[in-house]
Amino acid sequence: MYIHKRLIKNPLFFKWIFHPTEELNTYWATYLEQNPGETNAVLEFKSRFEKHLKFTNNNLNVEQKIKLAQRIIKQLDTVDLRKKRIVFFKNSLKYAAVALLFFTIGSSLVYLYMDSRQAAFVVENTALPAHAQEPMLIINDKQQIQLNSGASELDYSNSGEIIVNRDEAVKRQTEGKTPEINTLIIPYGSRSLVTLADGSRVWLNAGSRLIYPSEFVDNRREVFLVGEAFFEVAKNEDQPFFVKTTDVEIKVLGTKFNISAYPEDYSVQTALTEGRVELSRTNAGLLEKKIQLSPGKLAYFNKKSRETKIYDVDVQYYSLWTKGLFSFSNTDLNRITRKLERYYNIRFRFDDPFKGSIQITGKLDVTKGKDEVFEYLSKITGLDFVKLNENNYGIK
């Protein structure tokens, strides 16, 4: 497999296995966070090495390490071939059935209409193609409304119509029918504020997707999020509000909280500003314990371990982005550049991956021009931010 052959050419990989240090652990954690598609392959490769080392010593020379790596690669290739054959057979049956049952949008989204006045939906865990889309509202799989790049605003609180950017009115379907399902797509470089039919407000961050009904008619209000959003939920004890992601479900009555659930990230993070929320894993069993979150707390759900940990945090760190501010406290430069990539729809490339572990504390006003933001980062990190082309920057 190509990734395995590439890894054994990286001297830091062997150092990580045979002589791990805190710096190397940080380096590879950052690498995997930036390359989530390689996570399983890298960790499985490392695990195979560690199993072999239980029966030998660590004092292998470079040639012996490479030979050991090549033996492991052959083992993994054999296993991978078997898996591909099984998956191909299963997928052939699955997609034949799916083709008969579902109508898809962009190969990533599936709606399932139930015998209810409020439609239910199922969404696959796929990343939003940042460069291929413009901000868009899709109504009932049919009507498409192009939105402003940068900032946009939608308001459903007026009965019978959607107000777009405070001036354009789009007629909603008449009452008495199954509510329309709306899909709001906000790619990298854009943001949006949505006022839902119940008066709840949702700030949707770059690279995100929100799925919601035109009105809430059942005994629960339910939306589906891919990406990051800050919710200010209108209180209604008789109709609790649910935010669903691929991994976590959040139940609220009336509160303010931020949730970050990007498919490419290792975690789902929920930070509570006001009120109370209840968290559980999506599709959790009846006996599984739910987690109560109070203001000033962060729930960190690890997608790999499937465990949730609670931390005391400064919640403004997780909500200031709605005002065009990024707040950091001893935060790796890697995490900061990832947020900037989403906000500005650009890409960064480090000449040395270790530079991504530089920690920063402070605030960035990202409403200013990119050059001004990068100049500030350059001063506090001592690194140069060099423009390579229109959408790519180097960090040296």
Protein architecture, described:
With about 400 residues, the protein is α+β, with helices and mostly antiparallel strands. About 25% of the residues lie in helices and about 35% in strands. It folds into three domains: about 1-85; about 105-315, Jelly Rolls (Sandwich); about 325-395, Phage tail protein beta-alpha-beta fold (3-Layer(bab) Sandwich), CATH 3.55.50. The chain is built from seven helices and 26 strands. The strands form four sheets. The chain has an 18-stranded mixed β-sheet that branches. The longest helix is centred in the N-terminal third of the chain and has 40 residues, at about 60-100. The relative contact order is 0.08. Residues about 80-130 have low confidence and may be disordered.
Please tag this protein with its features.
396 residues, alpha+beta, Jelly Rolls, Phage tail protein beta-alpha-beta fold, 3 domains, 18-stranded mixed beta sheet, three-stranded antiparallel beta sheet, 7 helices, globular
